[in-house]
Design brief:
Layout (H helix, E strand, L loop, with lengths): L1 E6 L12 H8 L4 E6 L12 E2 L9 E2 L1 H12 L7 E10 L2 H7 L4 E5 L8 H7 L2 E4 L9 H12 L10 H4 L18 E2 L2 E2 L9 H19 L11 H9 L9
Parallel strand pairs: 1-2, 1-6, 5-6, 5-7
Antiparallel strand pairs: 3-4, 8-9
The structure holds S-adenosyl-L-homocysteine.
S-adenosyl-L-homocysteine (SAH) binds next to strand 5.
């Protein structure tokens, strides 16, 4: 899968993409990340990418000409490549959306700066506006890194074992159970007995229970959409969860 990133800071992506599973996937060619320097599409001596807003007010707005040229050049005639603009007003990035995006061979990401970009670029070229949360960043670049990581790890082969993504929080519609590793006793706290029992059925039951408990406590709204078994409902009922099983 290939991510094109239109940005005024192409070097921003150098170091973060060298590490961990995403770094490895880029080295092996499973993922490709191509920053596109927006300033290369400017025509004036100062390589201007922003200007004052019509109507006045604070801040600057990214001008449309270099953006349109950068998008058209990056698409290179392949009209079906989706163009995503990072924006606090966009659709929220979720596991479900990351999974949908991971099915594309190529994606173009546009990183805004200042107050954002000229609306006519949104209307003409942008297929989806996307937000990574209800807060404001100073630019779309950190959001692009978040998207590349979240989407990239869903590409088959990027993670060590196929099932480590399928068990993660949200993939099952629930938050993931807690984890323990060595040592068995740490600062007077013991690893739960069941995890060292060797009884895989019991371990799976314990993990499912913990996952349900955590989801009910922290993100109860996720239970409305999660795929739950009759046993899950039994557990949840004991924990005080009230909802009609048939719903
Ligand atoms: N004036 C805008 C904020 C601009 S912030 C507003 O109030 O909505 C500058 C750029 O950072 C944006 O164009 C966008 O690309 C990026 N950005 C800021 N917050 C973001 C978020 N929560 N998710 C994704 N991108 C964000």
């Amino acid at each position: 899968m290939k991510f094109h990133i239109i940005t005024i800071f192409p070097e921003y992506f150098d170091s973060p993409l060298k590490h961990g599973v995403i770094g490895k996937a880029i080295s092996s060619g499973l993922l490709q990340v191509q920053p596109v320097d927006l300033r290369a599409f400017t025509t004036d001596r100062h390589r201007t990418t922003d200007d004052r807003p019509y109507g006045g007010g604070a801040g600057m707005v990214m001008i449309p000409e270099p953006l349109s040229k950068a998008i058209i050049t990056t698409k290179a005639g392949k009209e079906d490549i989706p163009v995503i603009l990072f924006s606090p007003s966009g659709r929220l990035l979720t596991h479900k959306l990351a999974t949908e995006l991971s099915k594309h061979d190529e994606i173009i990401l546009i990183c805004g700066r200042y107050e954002g970009i000229d609306q006519r670029i949104v209307e003409r070229f942008v297929d989806m506006e996307l937000s990574i949360g209800d807060f404001v960043l100073s630019g779309g670049e950190p959001a692009a890194l978040v998207l590349i990581d979240a989407v990239g790890r869903l590409i088959p082969g990027v993670l060590g074992s196929e099932d480590s993504a399928s068990n993660d929080s949200f993939a099952t519609g629930l938050l993931e159970h807690p984890h323990y590793t060595r040592p068995r006793s740490f600062m007077g706290m013991e690893v739960p007995e069941v995890l060292v029992s060797g009884d895989h059925k019991k371990i799976e039951e314990w993990r499912r229970r913990k996952s349900l408990e955590l989801t009910l406590k922290r993100r109860p709204e996720l239970l409305d959409k999660a795929e739950l078994t009759p046993q899950d409902y039994q557990i949840l009922k004991k924990l005080g969860f009230k909802r009609d099983e048939q719903k």
